[in-house]
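queue> holo job accepted (fe (ii) ion)
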Amino acid sequence: MKNSTSALNGEFGLIINDVSRRDLKDQDFQREAYDLWTQHGGLLAVRGDDLRDIAPEELVAWSNVFGDVEYTAQIAREDKMVKGFPILRIGNIKDGAGKPAAQLAIVPQLQNDADVRYNPETRRPVWHTDSTFRQNPPIGSVFHCKQAPTAGGETLFADTRTAYARLDAGTKAKLAHLEAVCSVAHHDKKISLYSPAYPVLTPEQRAANPPNRVPIVLEHPVSGIPALYGLNSSTCAILPKDQQISPDVLDVCDLEGVEDNSVQIWRDMLPYVTGPEFTVKWQWQPGDIVVWDNRCTIHAATGYDYEANSREMWRLTLLDRAAAVAAE
Ligand SMILES: [Fe+2]
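queue> job finished
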């Protein structure tokens, strides 16, 4: 690769500089980029002036280097998609009629770098792995910046494989037998507690969407390296692998939006995992494309001055190729 690269935080995260759209189509470049993504803990950025003009089909092709781009449009978000493509717009932009053209979630702006670290009192930033409640959770995401605010709107990433590697042997032994119980009903109810317009599942929908269970320590299928895993707003309990969640406990989780105390084992690790030695604060520039691997990172959004700035991000979701093949 002729391009220069820069480390983001030691071994975690890498940016490839001066990248063009032609580079993204080059098969050798793609192979090297995939290897660099795996080697650097599942966080890879490409930056270059030419990428400001990337076409949706070019972004889809680049994303397919890292996983299978998911084609299902998310329900009730059709008007937030880039027309004809599996790309969700995120931000505060509006269409010609003044209607929101992107999905917007208001979150606090960082006041200083210390705010990157998870605060147990505020439970912010909302560090998580995406969609662990799904049967085959997405393996990663691609995020592309069209318009960036002058300040704020950073995306935060933490290296859960190095954080796991540096745990003491006793903690590792304790985590080895645990699974996260991830319930979409719990997720929706929890959000509705502070955002009352957020819809919750009907009893029928709840019955049709039982919790998914994922390991707390996930061995990466490509690198073989274990990483902490399974923290999402849907995570309602953390239990030994052979222990079922009792229906009474699940009712409280799903119907009241309250986490079981067992989730505390993950939350207690979060301030450590999100400290400066494991994290990257990514400040976006138009054209940037970042790919992250959900199997060995967690991430969090940060806010910006929503009145004074326009932000437009394009987001794609990556599925596991093996799971996609198995489902056919
Ligand atoms: Fe996310």
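queue> The mean pLDDT is 94.
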